[in-house]
Amino acid sequence: MISKSALADLPSPAPRSANPDALAAEIIERLTYSIGKDAKVAQPHDWLTATILVIRDRVIDRWMDSTRQVYESQGKRVYYLSLEFLIGRLTRDAVSNLEMLDEVRAALSSLGVDFDAVTALEPDAALGNGGLGRLAACFMESMATVDVPAYGYGIRYVHGLFRQQMSDGWQVELPETWLAHGNAWEFQRRESAYEIGFGGTVETLGDAIGVAPRCVWKPQERMIAVAYDTPVVGWRAKRVNTLRLWTAQPIDPILLDAFNAGDHIGALSESNKAEALARVLYPADQTPAGQELRLRQEYFFSSASLQDILRRHIQQYGELGSLPDKVAIQLNDTHPAVSVAELMRLLIDVHGLEFDPAWDITRKTFSYTNHTLLPEALESWPVPLFERLLPRHMQLVYAINAKVLRHARKERGYDDGQIRSVSLIDEGGERRVRMGNLAFVGSHSINGVSALHTDLMKQTVFSDLHGLYPERINNKTNGITPRRWLMQCNPGLFSLIREAIGDAFMDDAEALTALDAFAGDSEFRARFAAVKRDNKTRLADLVARRMGIKLDPSAMFDIQIKRIHEYKRQLLNIVEAVALYDQIRSNPEKDWAPRVKFLAGKAAPSYHNAKLIIKLANDVARVINNDPAVRGLLKIVFVPNYNVSLAEIMVPAADLSEQISTAGMEASGTGNMKFALNGALTIGTLDGANVEISECVGADNIVIFGLTADEVTQKRADGHEPRAIIEASHELSQALTAIASGVFSPDDRDRYAGLVAGLYEHDWFMVAADFEAYAHAQRQVDALWVDEKAWYGRTVLNTARVGWFSSDRTIRQYAKEIWKAGP
Ligand code: 26Q
């Protein structure tokens, strides 16, 4: 065990008194003087706000210290540019990282207020779609934890990801309103405001002899970006970093009125345009629709962030040549890729640099993370749209492209095919600007998010660019913050581990390996099982409360939670459940292991098949859950409105984690890591980070099935014949026939005919191809479940061996190998 004296070396949080009585007094003070309420009439939300204001006070000194420290040490700053930050609730996280949970709980309790009830009122900030946004949030917490001076930059959407409601089993989207009660965590920074332009023309000036012509962009439309800052507290509050989110405001509406004298409607429409910009997060679609407003969002936040970065740098260093030594900018996917052109514009047009030195600075400053290989998901913009909105950037993209293509052809001997593939402009059909290629050529590092994904990046989407710049592509396997995803969401397991192996894992998740020795300890296993049982009861209670479905916590809890997408194969899971249902009815005498299959996740509003899969899950659930012949041995539950807070309840309650994407299609996955850390067994394909998880936990402690990525590629090339495969499997054809013929949709018998026909005709996602292997793997899981001792031995080893997937490890690798920043 780590002794108290070893911990004493770590700086402790600013102790402006952590004693519960003093805290309670401060909360009352805030309630009275900041909110203007008496304790007697205070509403639950008022208590939440008063509590946040008190916690926030504890954070501010550390926050200022952190800012001062990087300034005085002239340290390198890291900027994480992301259109998504899926941060969820902040209060418990901050209190826990300040190590004030007990004190705050006691203070509120002395005032007759329940901490859990009050913090549950905090809206779940869903400024992201899924994995990519949640990764940004875990990274923000880890950068503060491992002492990297960092700013996250994004957009302060008024509406985060839509709220999902079920109507007769169909997904219905409702607007999300996280700011309805205000947001006590943020600070508006009116002084940090920048002008952002769109459209207009480019003028060339000063073409005197011997003087290079200068370009001036005269935007037709302008608005102001205003910053809102939220402190991000690292573990033990060692460092507090900033999440800076931009909102759009019209340029002074009064001025604008005068400007547009006589045209009030026109003036107001300008102000509406600004307000529309930051209104809503785009739901990730399987094919980005190329909406103009999305490109406006991308440019708006890129430009605001870069202007802010340059202002801060110039203020401290007085020049821009040192930018790459003092600034590292990470692009979270291609969403901020227009930043490459914007930095060039600022350096050349605003700060007077020549093209070549500007390009050198740009490449040394940026790095880019890729999160997808799906060709249809790669972002590109029609040239006419790009040119109309960003005429100067279009010129710069052409100039960059000319430079890159010249290098490829002259120095690398690239042929026409290779030139076409590395070009920033897609010339096949309607001309489009390829944002992935722009981000690639504008960066010194391009990373994938798992070992397999990085290999595939080199072989597929970026093969010709990789040939041109072979040292640029590298891997940084994703991670998750163990504070939120173990210590906070699973307090029972957290205390049990602490009791067993001491505190070292609290500062280094890899110290969890000390638990390995407890996998064979029957008393420990029993206590591990008891914690799991409590977490399952908590989830069962939630389902009973919200959905009126009664569940048995002694059944196996089998959980698949993530965005609904065909490649993630929720359909494979549901089809297998239908096959199992059939088997249970045909062989009632067999010892079936009781299971509850949970599914949850949102579908993009325009993604027809994904929405149909949600309806199918609900249709199948209704039939199976109400069939007395099943005798409760199988239940299916689709839990509505999946979000971070729901994940925090579902993850600790899982016995079985479903990570069953078509191999080669999931870049990494991060849910897989959360489940394993919380003691679930994984059933999964050799896809994304599953490959590395499997290596860490050992082949006996994970159930792997199905085609490999290479086999999928091969099968597609050879011509996959799903019909023959389906017809050869009695189980599968029975299940598909039942679904296609309306057994689960008596009100609309053809509802699933098209979905099933897709499996017979092409089976692009290899659902039919992998069915037998998956069903077999599920029966293997049943067999493991029966041997309770061995089951919990395996789950303990999962918790013990996945500490490496801490985002602290990931961030240390980024800091050392890409950013050259931090301690
Ligand atoms: C693009 C253009 C227009 C509108 C929306 C989008 C858009 C938005 C979000 C496209 C994609 C996303 C999100 C992608 C994402 O979440 N990818 C996931 O990233 C995780 C973190 O690296 C990985 O673990 C997952 O495998 C990957 O799917």
Give a nutshell description of this structure:
By secondary structure, this protein is an alpha/beta fold. The strands form six sheets. The protein has a nine-stranded mixed β-sheet.
Descriptive account of the structure:
With 823 residues, this protein is an alpha/beta fold. The chain is 49% helix and 15% strand. It contains 34 helices and 24 strands. The strands form 6 sheets. Strands 7-10-11-4-1-12-13-17-18 form a 9-stranded mixed beta sheet. A hairpin with a 2-residue loop joins β5 (163-167) and β6 (170-174). α23 packs across α30 (730-740). It is globular and about 95 Å long. Bound molecules: ligand 26Q. Residues 129-132, 135, 282, 284-285, 288, 294, 371-372, 379, 449, 478, 666-670, 688 line the site of ligand 26Q.
Keywords:
823 residues, 34 helices, binds ligand 26Q, 15% strand, disordered N terminus, alpha/beta
Write the SSE topology.
Blueprint: H1 4-7, H2 20-33, H3 44-72, E1 77-81, E2 85-88, H4 91-97, H5 101-110, H6 115-119, E3 125-127, H7 131-145, E4 150-155, E5 163-167, E6 170-174, E7 187-198, E8 201-205, E9 214-218, E10 221-233, E11 240-250, H8 253-259, H9 264-277, H10 292-317, H11 323-326, E12 327-332, H12 338-350, H13 355-365, E13 366-369, E14 380-382, H14 383-389, H15 391-411, H16 416-422, E15 425-426, E16 432-434, H17 435-441, E17 445-448, H18 451-459, H19 463-468, E18 473-475, H20 482-488, H21 491-501, H22 522-547, E19 556-561, H23 570-586, E20 595-600, H24 608-625, E21 634-638, H25 644-650, E22 656-659, H26 671-677, E23 681-684, H27 690-697, E24 703-704, H28 709-718, H29 722-728, H30 730-740, H31 753-761, H32 767-786, H33 788-801, H34 807-819
Parallel strand pairs: 1-4, 1-12, 4-11, 12-13, 13-17, 17-18, 19-20, 19-22, 20-21, 22-23, 23-24
Antiparallel strand pairs: 2-3, 5-6, 7-10, 8-9, 10-11, 14-16, 15-16
Helix pairs in contact: 2-3, 2-5, 7-34, 8-9, 10-12, 12-13, 12-15, 14-15, 21-22, 22-33, 23-24, 23-30, 23-32, 30-31
Bound molecules: ligand 26Q.
Ligand 26Q binds at residues 129-132, 135, 282, 284-285, 288, 294, 371-372, 379, 449, 478, 666-670, 688.
